[in-house]
Amino acid sequence: MILFAKRNLKLFFRDKSSVFFSLLAVIIVIGLYAFFLGDQLIKGLEGLKIENAEFMMNSWLIAGILSVTSISTTLGAFGVIVDDKVNKIEKDFRCSPISRSSIAGGYIISSFVVGVIMSLFAFVLGEAYIVMSGGELLPLMSMLKVLGMIILTVLAGSSMMFFIVSFFNSTNAFSTASTVIGTLIGFITGIYLPVGSMPESVAIVVKVFPISHAASVFRKIFMEIPTEKAFDGIPDKIADSAIKEINTELGVNFTIGSWEVSTLDSILILIATSAIFYILGILVVSKKKR
Asked: Residue-wise pLDDT tens for the chain (290 aa)?
């Protein structure tokens, strides 16, 4: 299984176009933020007399990028499955001594490793960008929380992509789906447009999408320090009200009906998503092999 996973990793990183397109969603987010969304969001916070608005919004951006990366990079890594189907290599594997569970496990492990590597890369670049823009590095404990969330988010993202890719048998279908998902993922995680600015029906879709909960937890971690600095010296009652409004607007905190989603709730949703979609994906693959 490990050797098969290494083979998949080599194939993925050897194909530069696959690596590029797996980061397409991240590139789109950065481009939109840099040229369109960034100034508007920062000006909106500055209107609330927040001095470190840029630090806060850059932290919000990087948190969103980490959640998106878990989807786009694992989807790109699962492209090896489609290539093996198209090139009939999958049939050779079935005739080899390798068990089917080892083959499936190899695909899953390689996708997970790709997602973690690329997410860590995005995290390092994001921290560097925040510091160069006048912000601060996360404290060590917060970094450890981010690392834990990266592992959980990639696990959830890869499980969803494994289920989706299990239906594809052609590179054209896979490429089309990758483009569509890469474009839409920013919307359904509340990155292109803050959740508080969306119509209620659209906001509900964002809030029930599992990876949006990863974005919410990432935002809580990244925005803790800039939020504290923004309201330092302001009376607690006023500060608490303003923070609550900002967190609701920016999708830091989710409320679905009367349910205020906690960090633990979001983590449990990601764990459940990982288990459910991996099981569904394995069932689809097993059914096709009969």
From this structure: 777 778 878 877 887 777 776 777 677 777 777 666 666 666 666 555 666 778 888 898 889 889 988 888 898 888 888 887 877 776 666 666 666 667 777 888 889 999 999 899 889 988 988 898 888 999 999 999 999 999 999 999 999 999 999 888 888 888 888 888 877 888 888 887 788 888 888 889 999 999 999 999 999 999 988 888 877 766 666 677 778 888 888 889 998 888 899 999 999 999 999 999 988 888 887 666 55
Go through 173-195 and write b for each residue having 16 or more CB atoms within 10 A of its CB, e for each that does not.
ebeebbeebbeebbebbbbbbbb
Query: Token pair for residue 100?
Result: 């089917």
Read off the pTM: 0.88
Distances (CA, A) of 45 to 50, 74, 164: 6, 34, 38
Cα first-last separation, the chain: 21
- Identity of the residue numbered 112: F
Q: With residue 260 as reference, give the H or E element that holds it.
A: strand 259-261
Number of domain units in the chain = 1
Task: List the helix and strand counts (H, then E) for the chain.
Answer: 15, 2
Handedness of CA 125, 131, 133, 136 (dihedral sign): positive
For the chain, state the CA radius of gyration.
20
Q: Which helix (H) or strand (E) holds 45?
A: helix 38-46
Q: Of 49, 35, 62, nearest to 133 (Cα)?
A: 62
Domain that holds residue 142: 2-289
H-state helical runs in 231-262: 236-249
